[in-house]
Amino acid sequence: MSSTVAADRPPIDPYPLSPYVAWAGNRNRDPILHVFKEIFPQSGNVLELASGAGNHINHFAPHFPKLQFQPSDYNVEVFETIKQNRADQKNVNVADPIKIDLTAPASWPDPKVRLYDVIFVVNLFQVAPVAIADGIAQVAARVLTKDGFVAIYGPFKVDGKYTTQSNEAFDKEILAPKVPEWGLIDVKDLERSANAHGIALKKILDMPANNFILVFGRA
Ligand SMILES: C[S@@+](CC[C@H](N)C(=O)[O-])C[C@H]1O[C@@H](n2cnc3c(N)ncnc32)[C@H](O)[C@@H]1O
Q: Which of 101, 152, 208, 218 sits CB 3.0–4.6 Å from 214 for a disulfide?
C-alpha cells in the first residue's frame, strides 16, 4: 500500500486479489526490485511471506535466475493466482506456494528441509495485527541462514511519529473502517519482536511514497 493518493487509485481493499492490492503492487514492485538487485545474493533460496497474488515474487524471479523463490500465504485461495502468474511469466525458479500462517507455529517451515538466504514481505503490517511481527521474527530465527536477512517493505511510523503528512493521512484512511488490526505500526514494535528472537534491525531504507524497506538479520 502506498501513502499517496493517486487519481487512478482504486478504493482501499486489503483482499489480496483486489484491484487496490494489484494497483499498489504494480506501483511499488519496480522500486523494490531496484533495491533487491543491490542486496540479494547471487544464488540461494528466497522465501516470500504473505505473497497474496504473487505479483512481487513473479516479477522479481526472472531477474535472479540462480535464486529459488518460495511463495507463501495463509490464505490458500490465492494459490491458483500465484501459479497462474508464474505460468504467464514462464518462471522456472518459483516453487508451488506453501501455506504459512504467521500466527500458527504448526504451519511454519521446517529448517531441516531448507534454510533461506532471504525472507521478504510486502505490505502486510498495515492490515495485520502487530503480533504478526512476532511470527516473522520466529520464522526468521528458525529458517534464516547465518548471514541471511529479512526485508520488510511498507509504510511505518518511526519513533511514534508519522514520517510525513501523507503517511498520517493514509493511516487515518485505513483506521476509518475501525478494523482493529488495521493501521500503521512503529518500526520499534517490529524491532522489539525481532530482538526477542535473536534478530536485529540492520538498515532502514527510504522508498518512494513514504515507504521503507526494513532489513533485519541475526543479532
Ligand atoms: C495487503 S495483502 C498484500 C499481498 C502482497 N504481499 C502484495 O503486496 O501484493 C496482505 C496479505 O497478507 C496475507 N496475510 C494476512 N495475515 C496473514 C498471516 N497471519 N499469515 C500469513 N499471511 C497473512 C493475506 O492473505 C494477504 O495475501
A: 152
The model's pTM is: 0.95
CA of 13 to the centre of ligand 1 (A): 12
Instruction: Tell me what percent of the residues of the chain surpass a pLDDT of 90.
Output: 80
* Residue type at 208 in one-letter notation: P
Q: Is the CB of 14 under 6 A from ligand 1?
A: yes
Please classify residue 42 by burial: count the beta carbons closer than 10 Å to its beta carbon, then call 0-12 exposed, 13-18 middle and 19+ buried: exposed
Q: Which atom of ligand 1 is nearest to the CA of 78?
A: 27
Domains for the chain: give ranges and CATH numbers: 19-218 (3.40.50.150)
Q: What is the dihedral of CA 10, 14, 19, 24, to 10 degrees?
A: 70
Task: Please report the pLDDT score of residue 178 as a whole number.
Answer: 87
Calculate helix-pair angle for 187-196, 132-143, nearest 10 degrees. 40
| Amino acid code (one letter) for 104 | A
